[in-house]
Design goal:
The complex is a heterodimer.
Chain A lengths: L13 H13 L4 E2 L17 E7 L2 E7 L5 H8 L18 E4 L2 E4 L12 E3 L12 H8 L9 H14 L5 H7 L10 H17 L1
Parallel strand pairs in A: 2-6
Antiparallel strand pairs in A: 2-3, 4-5, 4-6
Chain B lengths: L20 H5 L15 E7 L5 E7 L1 H4 L4 E5 L30 E2 L5 E7 L2 H10 L1 E6 L12 E4 L16 H7 L2 E9 L12 E6 L2 E5 L5 H12 L6 E4 L16 H12 L3 E3 L6 H4 L6 E9 L5 E13 L9 H4 L8 E10 L12 H19 L3 H7 L17 H12 L12 E2 L2 E13 L1 E2 L2 E8 L4 E4 L9 H13 L6 E4 L16 H24 L7 H5 L9 H4 L4 H11 L3 E8 L8 H6 L6 E2 L9 E13 L5 E11 L6 H20 L5 E2 L4 E2 L17 E6 L23 H13 L16
Parallel strand pairs in B: 1-12, 10-11, 14-15, 20-21, 25-28
Antiparallel strand pairs in B: 1-5, 2-4, 2-6, 3-5, 7-15, 8-13, 9-10, 9-12, 13-14, 16-17, 17-24, 18-23, 19-20, 19-22, 24-25, 26-27
Helix pairs in contact in B: 5-6, 9-19, 12-13, 13-16, 18-19
Classes of the chains: A alpha+beta, B alpha+beta.
């Protein structure tokens, strides 16, 4: 994150953010109602919004967000970029994969605040106008999806995987793509798609 | 052509790319929770931490202090909802356990509160601050828990109609020369479709729109209306894309009417995206099963006696069962058959349909036992199937409409290299790896349901097909578009398909592999109505012979290729003769043997599947044969399945590309059902332990090195106009048995309980 970003957080200081971020991390993601005698967490008020600017698909987007908002929820709920999908919200399935810089990250485990000042690329930003990215075309040619829900994450992960140099063999692709679950199990077709697209991507 | 687009054989359509391909790779396919809402409030569920007992009370103070909380709904202030009957007993609901109705808790993870807030983050935090005081009772978790009850399925579940029997099993088994008597078990499994069990509800006055992944929009629409006590015409369910179903979205879950009721009260759209682990308890799952199989055979391998007893777990409230004996008692020729299915009631959420509901567990038992019999007979397992192959099912003697089982075995065996197998267990290895080859049969009933469709044809050839079908990844858009294009003779690119919306003409539930056969048969019929109208207009004096219908207007060009040539003139002439700008036809199709109330039921969202073993004078199944190579490390006991080969025959293959993909996914599901998937239940608390995608193991890319799908050409004119047998649930049947049969071949160890993990191997 750029060094001056905290100065842009109106009405909010970094120390307060860290305190409440740590507090919310203690709360399990799922509400399983515990017994009354469980110790009550310290009351926080993290719902004070912060003003941030996210750079998404080459455009600056100014947002007022709850500081606990993830990149995934910022994209989906605030920027109406719903291509990135929520499949687990735990970083276990890969459906939310986007690129931050050159890296593939699970956007459900990345706070929007932590992505400020960086280049976020989502599935909506991959094509050039009507010209599909070679990986998108390869997914079509090789029927590398069925229900399509994991597909944006698979494609973003596949693009990064090729650029990382982890697409030189079938076994390599299978290993380095195993963070993206496809419940329809289109895996062999995804491998074929990546082999088709890899030369075009590395060449370009 | 590449591997994904196999060259069509006889009676196969073209392997055209998916209709929805660009939308899906570009991130433009809109799933339920992608739908934009105007100023939504966010819901977060609170679920029970006990499986049985009562709620004493809530402490909501801490939760209500969270900034942005709008309301917290518990049983003390929940919307009043009417009950709905179980899907299997003629209703809409996947469970009759209705949360927020009382202080009683019937299962782990039951919804006990719903927090509504201005943001997702606030709703989540407040939900975690809801404190519930319980009085817990000791729950019964599963088969062997104290407090369960057991009773025959027949009589309590309307969908389970009979325990098939024929001849004198006891005597024949007693006198049989060779016998197998073995018990098998399959585990609890959860569908875990990638899309979560989300629901968005928007009211506009008295009209409700629901955005939710559903495999049955008409069922959901009517079910929610029933629960809310409003006219079904006031409810619309929209889901043009569904992020996987696998059976989990065929019946209504309680969440929908709850959210709809709260949205009405707050007069604001509400969006609920439950967590992955909540999906384990607020929807259905595949319950654990137990099987006792007895096979008696002559020395030549001919079966003389077969008994299959199945026991399944269900909830206290509901008599759900899959009852796969209707298939396993009819697959092979055998004169003396007996069977019984029972249900054990425990303190669990109600189970439901999961991909190949009856056949995955029941065929595991039968096809494992067949392999055991082959070993006892010292006979090749393929030859054992051949000896017992039959043209007529043994219970009622009805003929199979077509049956390519042995053709599938032969094709798959050849592709797999079965002849390279040395029959003795532990006789093949590669370094530290013991190698095993195994095979099993698969089959799945050919089912159909009534379906309506509306087709509109414009002068320029542009065609619009409307049907409330469902795109759950099967290729529904694609095969419907292909069917209309072929039938009307218009270019495929001219056809627009609208599905996944209950305002469209009713389609069937996307379950039981009936969708393609049902929807495409309906589309064919309605396209023919259009052709007939054009024919009548252009040749008013001619009688409507089938021959004539084929020789006029667009009907003359049944292929895409020909349609691209010079058909414009004919279309123009037809429209001129008709004197209209658009031809639109609506029709309702029902399969042979559909009950008299079929169309009424279709509109009220009641599924009426017919076919399979339930047909009057015939029986219709799709068949296949599956071969696997397993490798078991002799030191670490790690189990790998490097090769899966399946050959399948399923009547007309509408699109070899989408068919292959679905069968490939099915094979991987089958492997997974044997080696990976099991929901662990804490036997003391009756709670699910591994309720997330890291601990509930589903296959990832590294688990599936080699999968080969072979499509056999098969024509069946006795099933439905489309000539299609379903295949979505065909490929993941029998794979589990093939894997265990291969493990036996590799290690000499017979495994009868799934899943097989390395700790179960005793080399």
């Amino acid at each position: 994150m750029s060094g001056n970003s905290s100065s842009r957080l109106s009405g909010f200081d970094r120390r307060a953010f860290m305190a409440c971020a740590a507090g919310s991390a203690l709360v399990p993601m799922t509400a399983r109602a515990g017994a009354l005698d469980a110790p009550a967490p310290v009351a926080q008020d993290p719902a004070l919004h912060v003003e941030i600017t996210l750079r998404v698909n080459g455009q600056d987007k100014r947002l007022s967000l709850d500081p606990r908002t993830t990149v995934l929820d910022a994209l989906r709920e605030h920027l109406k970029l719903t291509g990135s999908k929520k499949g687990c919200d735990h970083g276990q399935c890969g459906a939310c994969t986007v690129l931050i810089g050159e890296r593939r990250v699970v956007s459900c485990l990345t706070l929007a605040l932590a992505a400020e000042g960086q280049e976020i690329t989502t599935i909506e930003g991959l094509a050039t106008g009507d010209q599909l990215h070679p990986m998108q075309q390869a997914f079509i040619d090789n029927d590398a999806f069925q229900c399509g829900y994991c597909t944006p994450g698979q494609i973003m992960s596949a693009v990064a995987c090729v650029k990382e140099g982890h697409a030189s063999s079938d076994a390599d692709i299978r290993e380095y793509m195993s963070g993206n679950i496809c419940r329809c199990a289109a895996y062999p077709n995804i491998v074929a798609a990546m082999k088709q697209a890899a030369p075009e991507i590395t060449k370009g | 052509m590449n591997a994904a687009a196999p060259e069509p054989k006889a009676n196969m359509g073209q392997p055209v790319p998916r209709y929805d391909a660009v939308a899906k790779v570009a991130g433009r396919a809109t799933y339920g929770s992608d739908m934009p809402l105007d100023n939504p409030a966010y819901a977060f569920l609170v679920t029970s931490a006990i499986a049985r007992g009562r709620i004493n009370g809530f402490d909501l103070d801490d939760a209500k202090r969270v900034r942005g909380v709008i309301d917290i709904i518990t049983h003390e202030n929940a919307p009043d909802l009417k009950e709905s009957k179980l899907f299997s007993n003629g209703g809409y609901a996947g469970t009759t356990i209705q949360p927020l109705k009382s202080a009683d808790i019937a299962h782990d993870g039951e919804i006990v509160a719903v927090v509504i807030a201005e943001s997702y983050e606030a709703a989540r935090e407040a939900a975690n601050r809801v404190k519930v005081s319980y009085t817990a009772a000791t729950p019964s978790a599963s088969f062997d828990s104290p407090g369960t009850t057991k009773a025959a399925a027949k009589g309590q579940n309307a969908q389970f109609k009979e325990d098939p029997q024929v001849g004198d099993f006891a005597k024949a088994f007693d006198e049989a020369e060779v016998k197998v008597d073995a018990a098998y078990e399959t585990p609890t499994q959860h569908h875990n479709p990638m899309e979560l069990f989300s629901t968005s509800c928007v009211w506009m006055g008295d009209d409700l729109v629901i955005y939710e992944p559903s495999q049955y929009v008409y069922g959901l629409k009517n079910g929610v209306a029933e629960q809310l006590g409003i006219d079904a015409d006031k409810v619309r369910v929209v889901n043009p894309y569904v992020g996987g179903g696998f059976g989990s979205r065929g019946s209504m879950t309680p969440r929908t009417a709850i959210i709809a009721g709260i949205a009405k009260r707050l007069n604001r759209p509400i969006k609920l995206v439950p967590t992955r682990d909540q999906g384990f308890t607020i929807a259905t799952y595949r319950a654990e099963t137990r099987h006792a199989i007895k096979l008696g055979a002559n020395r030549d391998g001919k079966l003389v006696a077969l008994r299959h007893e199945g026991v399944e777990v269900s909830s206290r409230a509901d008599p759900y069962c899959v009852g796969g004996t209707k298939t396993t008692t009819r697959l092979y020729a055998c004169p003396n058959v007996d069977s019984l299915v029972s249900i054990v009631r425990a303190d669990r959420n109600t189970p439901g349909f999961m991909r190949s509901p009856p056949e995955v567990p029941y065929m595991f038992a039968l096809e494992s036992a067949m392999d055991e019999l082959a070993v006892k007979l010292d006979m090749d397992p393929i030859e054992l199937r051949r000896v017992n192959d039959t043209t007529n099912e043994p219970i009622g003697g009805k003929p199979y409409t077509s049956r390519s089982l042995m053709g599938c075995f032969d094709e798959a065996a050849k592709a797999f290299g079965w002849s390279q197998r040395s029959a003795a267990p532990k006789s093949m290895s590669d370094g530290d790896w013991l190698i095993g080859y195994g095979c099993a049969a698969t089959c799945y009933p050919t089912q159909m349901a009534p379906s309506a469709a509306r087709v509109r044809l414009q002068r320029d050839g542009r065609t619009r097909v409307e049907i409330a079908g469902h795109e759950i990844g099967t290729g529904a858009y694609t095969v419907i578009a292909q069917t209309a294009a072929e039938r009307l003779g218009v270019p495929l690119e001219q056809v627009a398909v609208f599905i996944g919306d209950s305002d469209l003409p009713p389609g069937p539930v996307a379950g039981g592999s009936n969708s393609t056969a049902s929807t495409c048969s309906a589309v064919m019929m309605v396209c023919d109505q259009i052709r007939q109208r054009m024919f009548k207009a252009m040749m008013p004096r001619q009688s409507l012979t089938d021959k004539a219908k084929e020789t006029v207007g667009i009907g003359r060009t049944p292929t895409m290729q020909a349609a691209k040539s010079d058909r414009t003139l004919d279309l123009e002439r037809a429209f001129d003769a008709l004197g209209v700008g658009v031809i639109e036809e609506y029709g309702e199709w029902k399969p042979e043997g559909a009950p008299p109330d079929s169309f009424k039921a279709m509109h009220s969202g009641h599924a009426r599947l017919v076919g399979g073993a339930a047909m009057k004078d015939k029986i219709a199944y799709a068949f296949g044969a599956e071969f696997v190579e397993v490798r078991v490390n002799r030191f670490t006991h790690e189990i790998r399945a490097p090769r899966l080969v399946g050959a399948f025959a399923a009547g007309r293959i509408m699109n070899p590309r989408t068919a292959r993909s679905q069968l490939m996914g099915g094979l991987i599901w089958g492997m997974s059902s044997a080696l990976l998937e099991a929901t662990e239940i804490d036997q003391r608390t009756a709670r699910y332990v591994n309720d997330n995608l890291a601990d509930y193991l589903v296959p990832v890319s590294a688990d599936v090195p080699g999968v080969e799908v072979i499509l056999l050409s098969e024509q069946d004119d006795h099933i439905n106009p489309a000539g299609a047998k379903g295949l979505g649930e065909l490929a993941n049947v029998g794979t589990n048995a093939a894997i265990c049969n291969a493990i036996y071949h590799a290690t000499g160890q017979r495994i009868r309980k799934l899943p097989v993990r390395l700790e179960n191997i005793e080399v």
